[in-house]
């Protein structure tokens, strides 16, 4: 009996100690949880790890796996003036008459969505803005794009008849420039309930459409008024005189692509990459070395990037470091350069040949295929032409082929050419 009683007391002491240890661990974890603020939503950068690029000669769009330095997915497309806009997992293929989302997981696309010819499409965060040439502006979520019809969906804004300039900030705020009036549409949970804030009148802004460019740095709108050698910063339109900074001709200047919040706004002239503080202050120039035709520059992290066709030069200017200025390796005289950005990733793409470079690192040329490694790369053939037009040679019939995603083969995927919307989507009004 004494042994049994002693064992019982030991078990009780052991259990008590165990509970005490667990209680201390729980308190420590709770203390860390209370002390550590965690990540705010703005600190979480959701990206698919890839940047989509174009190869016009081969009739392809492809995804660059930036970490691996190679293409890991391809889609064959036929169409002219094709543009790619992307933000995280949302990727849209655009031309002047249609828009089609790309399913980045399966490497397929949704059916084509007709646009009014000459429309402009912009993407930022979880908002898509569409502006028609007659002055209508729609604000959608990416999920509403497949059911969009210009004739059936009420616009969020309508101008007096001329086309508006539009841009979407990195938080989903939509900015609309209607002549000299800047409209702000703050992000709303329901895109259909988006309402405009108080409009801002920008006096002395050029009214020549080809002289004004609109972009956004985070949720700050920026305008380049080339005619007056002026930047207009923020909703208030604070003026920054570029001529006073000694900035030369702005005839071919390009304002930066819309991007994340930063201290500067970037523009590229024919011979330099220029960074201008949003809070005011002197501009900083990084000479390109020789004149060329600038492409829209970009900001990613603490670095600004510029590239020039004809001269085939690039500039990488990072805070706290001397700017890198060099020739684009292996680019020929006809290179059609474009900076492609997806969240924190940036790639320089020759849209004509499909060559792409990791411009944020050492300008390493992206591996174009897996054939040399014995695995090959499959494609899905998509005909992006309108009904009645002659399809491309690779789009003569429905394509049933294999798609390579992330280095592994997936089962055959069927892509129907000129696929129509399901009957439930025809003429559907977006809620």
Automatic annotation (TrEMBL):
Q: Where is this region: Disordered?
A: 405-431
* Protein name according to UniProt: Fibronectin type III domain-containing protein
**Naturally occurring in which organism (per UniProt):** Brachybacterium tyrofermentans
Upper lineage is: Bacteria, Bacillati, Actinomycetota, Actinomycetes, Micrococcales
């Amino acid at each position: 009996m004494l042994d049994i009683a002693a064992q019982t007391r030991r078990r009780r002491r052991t259990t008590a100690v165990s509970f005490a240890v667990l209680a201390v661990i729980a308190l420590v974890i709770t203390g860390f949880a209370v002390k550590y603020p965690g990540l705010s939503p703005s600190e979480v950068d959701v990206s698919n790890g890839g940047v989509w690029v174009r190869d016009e000669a081969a009739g392809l769009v492809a995804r660059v796996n930036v970490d691996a330095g190679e293409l890991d997915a391809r889609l064959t497309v036929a169409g002219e003036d094709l543009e790619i806009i992307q933000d995280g997992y949302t990727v849209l293929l655009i031309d002047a008459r249609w828009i089609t989302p790309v399913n980045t997981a399966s490497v397929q696309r949704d059916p084509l969505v007709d646009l009014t010819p000459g429309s402009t499409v912009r993407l930022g965060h979880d908002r898509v803005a569409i502006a028609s040439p007659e002055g209508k502006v729609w604000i959608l979520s990416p999920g509403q794009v497949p059911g969009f019809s210009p004739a059936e969906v009420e616009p969020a804004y309508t101008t007096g008849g001329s086309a508006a300039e539009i841009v979407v900030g990195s938080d989903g705020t939509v900015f609309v420039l209607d002549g000299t009036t800047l409209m702000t549409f703050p992000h709303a949970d329901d895109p259909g309930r988006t309402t405009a804030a108080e409009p801002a009148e920008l006096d002395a802004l050029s009214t020549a459409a080809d002289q004004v460019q609109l972009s956004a740095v985070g949720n700050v709108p920026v305008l380049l008024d080339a005619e007056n050698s002026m930047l207009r910063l923020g909703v208030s339109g604070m003026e920054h005189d570029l001529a006073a900074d000694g900035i030369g001709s702005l005839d071919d200047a390009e304002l930066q692509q819309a991007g994340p919040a930063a201290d500067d706004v970037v523009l590229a002239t024919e011979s330099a990459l220029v960074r201008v503080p949003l809070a005011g202050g002197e501009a900083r120039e990084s000479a390109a070395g020789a004149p060329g035709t600038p492409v829209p520059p970009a900001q990613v992290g603490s670095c600004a990037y510029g590239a020039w066709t004809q001269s085939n030069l690039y500039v990488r200017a990072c805070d706290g470091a001397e700017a890198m200025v060099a020739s684009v390796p292996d680019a020929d005289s006809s290179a059609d350069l474009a900076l492609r950005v997806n969240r924190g990733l940036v790639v320089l793409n020759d849209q004509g040949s499909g060559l792409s470079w990791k411009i944020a690192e050492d300008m390493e040329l992206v591996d174009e295929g897996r054939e040399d490694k014995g695995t090959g790369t499959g494609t899905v053939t998509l005909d992006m032409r309108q009904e009645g037009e002659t399809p491309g040679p690779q789009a003569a019939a429905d394509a049933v082929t294999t798609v390579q995603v992330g280095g592994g083969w997936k089962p055959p995927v069927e892509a129907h050419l000129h696929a129509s919307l399901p009957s439930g989507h025809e003429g559907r009004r977006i809620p």
